[in-house]
Amino acid sequence: MQLQYNSKSTAVKRLMREAKELSEPTDEYSAHPLEDNLFEWHFTIRGPQASEYDGGIYHGRILLPTEYPMKPPNIILLTPNGRWETNKKICLSISSHHPETWQPSWSIRTALLALIAFMPTNGRGSLGALEYTPEERSSLAKKSHTWACDSCGQISDLLANNKAKPMTKEESELINSVTFKGEDSEKVSKPSDQQKQEVQSNAINEEPVINNITPNFFKDALCSDIGMYLIYLIIALISILVARRFYSA
Amino acid sequence: MDSNHETTATKPEGLEQDELIIQQHREIEKEISDSILLIGEKEELTSLQTEYINDPVYLTKIQDLNKKYKCMRRARPDGNCFFRSFAFAYFEYLLSHNEEYKHFKERALKSKDELISCGFTQFTLEDFHDTFMEVVNLIGEGQHEKLYDTFNMQGYSDYVVVYLRLITSGQLQKDAEFYKHFIEGDRTVVEFCHQEVEPMFKESDHIHIIALSTALNVGVRVRYMDRGESSEAIAHDFPEGSPVCVHLLYRPGHYDILYSR
Question: Residue A9 burial (CB < 10 Å; 0-12/13-18/19+)?
């Protein structure tokens, strides 16, 4: 028990530090731990300028594993945004699907900056990613102002005018190389060994591709749409043929 | 485009298999790691013999090691074993070398600003640094047992590993011109650090050992126990020629601590 307690205490210390660091809301993001649970946070981010999310404000949850910061946080968006499904864990290369790429020197702030930077990229092919039109996304961005969180209230009040701290060299390097993808929560495989993450799921997308999104454009598109439909079609055909044979005999 | 259909159509299933294999791999790793202390108690080298009972090559080398070393400590095989073994062996050495302890403490204190200037995020770095210094200060208290217990607390022990990983990364980046020649694959020193040095649970290679021992100016002797012809486990010193204060045993994929006679 001693071991567990102490392992926790470095996480607690670290999260207290992060809570202090993030105590002032900025114009780009804000985040705070829930009053009764330091391992669950709520965050608010502003949609990046010059994108279809411009003007949007998005709210969500961050679930932290007990091993944090040795293991990565999980992010769940709550505000409809047209980019990711709500109430589903999303998966960046700094997420629990690829713990080997998470680095303990990253933080909640790093994860939020990466999330904002990744919003305008194309989520084609990855599960949990939504293929809304720019118009639909823009209209969701406008509507997002009236969205309210049960525990945090009106989310448009949660960001401030203060400029966020400039990114460090480490952060900007990360943001250039990060890849997010949706998580397939229906394909739950096995319970995870972490208390905070109830399930580990399978991802059906490519491994995170570092600085290399365009070359996979066609592959991903095919994989997600035509390819999958083809498989379903073939499976359906085979089952019809089998059934016919079965019944005619 | 048609040919693309086939390759991409099978991909999801293949990936699912991969994910399952990775998952299983992780579970096995977890099982192993739960059963072995982060840093074990001292034990006789003869305890190695039972692992290689049918292996004359290894047995000969264990016999030779037994002449040179009086005992060993095992480290948990979780990918952090080099850093954890190094840290514990060196801190233990410092317990009985007060002058060197003072030097090291000074160096460790200075390392914070060096790493921040290297581009690491200040407030997370401070978090690691402060906890690292807490453990370093235990050496000053001179209590071996307390140091040992701390190295077996997951949180503190991992923080020491993280900080040494950052020091290693800092050294590689500082001397990138030199180290870039040793990096395999088409990647820069910075990419290598992000992929192979900074993340936890990533195993260490020569390049990690060279960078860390150079950064801290601590002599490390690694005894390599492998299938080589020689009747002894060959020694390599890092950095070459410096006085040795940390002795490690390498078996493929793993490091433990050795104590010389």
Answer: middle
